[in-house]
Amino acid sequence: MTEFFDILANPAFWVAVLRIATPLILGTLGVLLCERAGVLNLGIEGIMVAGAFTGWLAVYGGAPLWAGVAVAALTGAALGLLHAFLTVGLALSQHVSGLGITLLATALSYYGYRVSFPKVSTPPTITPFAEMSWLPLPILAQQTAMTLLALLAVPVIAYVLFKTPVGLALRMVGENPQAAEGQGVSVARVRTGAIVAGSALMGVAGSFLTLSAFNAFFFNMVNGRGWICVALVVFASWRPGKALLGALLFAFFDALQLRLQQMNDVVLPYQLYLMLPYVLSIVALVLVARKASYPQALMKPYRRGER
Amino acid sequence: MRLEKRSHSSSAAMLLAPLGAVAFTLMISALLVLWAGAPVGQTYGLLLKGGFGSVFALSETLTRAIPLMLTGLAAAVAFKARLFNIGAEGQLYVGAMAAVAVGGLHGGTGFDLPPALLFLLMMLAAALAGALLLLGPALMKAKLGVDEVVTTLLLNFIVLLLVSLMLDGPMKDPSAMGWPQSVALLGDLELSKLIEQTRVHTGLLWAVALAVGLWALMKYTVLGFDIRAVGANPRAAAFAGVSVTRTVVLVALLSGGLAGLAGAIEVAGRTSYLTLDMSPGYGYSGIVIAMLAGLHPLGVVLGSVFVAGVLVGADSMSRVVGVPTYIADVIVATSLISVLVATLLTQYKVKLK
Q1: Which of A11, B112, B142, B159 is the most buried (most CB within 10 A)?
Q2: Does the CB of B351 have a partner CB in chain A at under 8 Å?
Q3: Is A89 on the interface with B (CB under 8 A)?
Q4: Subunit contact B144:A271, Cβ cutoff 8 A
Q5: How many domains does chain B have?
Q6: Phi, psi for A62 (deg, rounded to 5)
Q7: B34 near B40, Cβ under 8 Å?
Q8: Are A227 and B150 within 8 A, CB to CB?
Q9: Which residues pair with A144 in a beta bridge?
Q10: Does B140 sit within 8 Å of A92, measured CB to CB?
Q11: Quick one: closest CA in A to B169, which residue?
Q12: pLDDT tens digit string along A44-54?
């Protein structure tokens, strides 16, 4: 038990929590924007892979780090536009379109990596973002600027969603598209905008892995983080503040299981610890299920004039 | 952009749609092949030859098609009832684990049962394991409204860790020199080969028979009618006296069971033991196959041979012209999206304002 408190008392633990949480915060906010507008985006897993790859490739090719982040955002936006074309323009199944985009984006990224680096045994590396050691804040000073970006995105998105006309339109098309159309809001345009913006955030979430957390691109490096964001947004009841809380909570358990594995008096197989974050995600979904208030029009395609 | 429902779909359009989808897919992939610096014609030729061009190529394709057919059927029946089971990958692995537990552990005694009975028990255990793994998410969906997409996806990760745990411990093959593989099945339980000197095994007959069985079930039984009714409109189905929860649970058992069988048949027909990499995403490819087939069980048979052929063909093509094998995944994903769009265009007219 004292060892447990030793873990919590160590600032390095909390540094790890915030680092693990960063891509989850960005990804969850991305899912949140799409779902608030009424569109499920299961493309997130693949969009994160594509963002991680293109952002890293740009920096490897000589672009500055922030340009790499911008490339990742553009990649995400482009894939989001495809998802919007399929789900909003053509009103195809949001489940299937999203899974299709995940498969396509992942396959294209792996293909692109293999074409660019046909015969490398060790992955080529870049110089990632540096820690913000100039910041006079204890745990934040050991993070990169991308973590700061993620933390700032939370209040910005909350403000846009709940205090601006754009945010109101976005929430309206997700709750009652017929009424929104009656108010002169173009459902198709608002939904497309929300998906493109949300997917750009997912791309940035992916690029955090290659430009900040690590310095190279690996296969399977996203490893289900996208799906976890889809679970976190339900847990967060589609609210940005709670999304931040959920991502931090998840990261807390993920960092904890890593530390617990290293404790020498523990004899349980390491796989049980690795399961913990996934099990907790399911438990969280069950716990909030009763009071989860899904955006009313989520997963319902809208065709003008049809009921 | 707006959609207008066509009053009737012309037969020319129905024929042109899939051709257009294929042409579009080949065009996109051709650009990627050019990027890799390979000649397009030769690459496609090699891919076709490697997948379908000889008895050996065809036997490899059919071998690969067996698990894909079963996971494809699992996805088709579940999606038909709007139960979005994305967990076939995990269900395949628990099926394989159950098969090894019944057919391989127990120190090679086989519980002193006759092989035919043990084989049956092994398959039943695998189907049951897969079915139970999907039952949880299906009940959570029906009773609590928890989205099954996320729960089944997360379970895939949990199951893979469980497999890794089993291979480190209870199921570890002590004579594998630290290689992560399970104890092997009893030799008597392995499926025999369909063609001498190849890997294609009688699991193919099982898979095709199950496809025909599922088709008949969907078309001729009350359960099949209920599944289609719940998938089309759950509220109307409930109003008409169909128990939605009961139907969803039965579909979950059917879908999970099929995916569990995919795992057992892979072990009994191809690998003879469980490894952590025995499925390169068969569960996910099954979803694509089901969609390509329009959720039709017999279409799944054809779809799985197509996807398997592309995968096998890409492997052999890649060895010659150096185009990365991931081109196969690009072809499969692009064909999924273009087939969906093409099918829609046969039913709707797109008007730009």
Answers
A1: B159
A2: no
A3: yes
A4: no
A5: 1
A6: 110, -5
A7: yes
A8: yes
A9: A131
A10: no
A11: A269
A12: 999 999 999 99
The pLDDT score that the predictor gives to residue B108 is: 62
Instruction: Write the pLDDT tens digit of every residue in A164-211.
Output: 999 999 999 999 999 998 888 999 999 999 999 999 999 999 999 999
Cβ contact, residue pair B35, A115, below 8 Å: yes
Prediction pTM value: 0.93
Beta-carbon-side half-sphere exposure of residue B55 (alpha carbons within 13 Å)? 5
Average pLDDT over residues A85-99: 92
For residues B189 and B272, give the distance between their C-alpha atoms in angstroms, rounded to a whole number.
9
Q: What is the pLDDT of residues B110-143, one digit of tens each?
A: 677 888 899 999 999 999 999 999 999 999 998 8
What is the predicted pLDDT for the residue at A140? 86
The residue of chain A with its CA nearest to that of B352 is: A89
Q: Supply the DSSP string of B234-289, one letter for each residue.
A: HHHHHHTT--HHHHHHHHHHHHHHHHHHHHHHHIIIIISS-BTTS-SSHHHHHHHH
Looking at the structure of chain A, the number of domains it has is: 1
Residue B90 located in a structural domain = yes
Judged by CB atoms closer than 8 Å, whether chains meet at B326 and A99 is answered as no
The CATH number of whichever domain residue B264 belongs to comes to 1.10.3470
pLDDT score at B353: 58
Residue B12 predicted with pLDDT over 90: no
Distance in Å, alpha carbon of A295 to nearest chain B alpha carbon:
13
**A244 in a domain, yes or no?**
yes
Residue A299: inside a domain: no
Asked whether residue B333 is domain-assigned, the answer is no
Cα dihedral A191, A193, A197, A200 in deg (nearest 10): 100
**Chain A residues near residue B17 by CB distance under 8 angstroms:** none
* A266 touches B: beta carbon within 8 Å: no
Q: How many CB pairs under 8 A join A and B?
A: 125
Kindly determine whether residue A114 and residue B324, on different chains, have CB atoms separated by under 8 Å. yes
User: How do residues A201-235 score in pLDDT, each as one tens digit?
Assistant: 999 999 999 999 999 999 989 988 999 999 999 88
Interchain contact, A278 vs B157, CB within 8 Å: yes
Task: From chain B, pick out residues whose CB is under 8 angstroms from the CB of A269.
Answer: 165, 168-169
For residue A261, being part of any structural domain is answered with yes
A223-251 burial string, b = 16+ CB within 10 Å, else e? ebbbbbbbbbbbbbebbbebbbbbbbbbb
Residue B2 within any structural domain of the chain = no
The predicted structure's pLDDT at residue A230: 92
**Residue A205 belongs to domain with CATH number:** 1.10.3470.10
Instruction: For residue A120, tell me if it sits in a domain.
Output: no
A110 and B86: CB-CB below 8 Å?
Answer: no
Which residues from A are below 8 Å from B315, CB to CB?
none
Q: Which residues contact B110 (CB under 8 A, 6 or more apart)?
A: B103, B118, B186, B188
The pLDDT tens digits of the residues spanning B320-337 come to: 998 999 999 999 999 999
Confidence of residue B5 (pLDDT cuts 50, 70, 90): confident
Q: Looking at CA atoms only, how far is residue A14 from chain B in angstroms?
A: 25
Contact indicator for A67, A56 with CB cutoff of 8 Å: no
Instruction: Give the domain range for residue B62.
Output: 37-323
Supply the ipTM of this predicted assembly. Answer: 0.90
* Cβ-nearest to B3 among A97, A269, A303: A303
C-alpha to C-alpha distance for A247 and A254, rounded to whole angstroms: 10
Asked if pLDDT for residue B152 goes beyond 60, the answer is yes
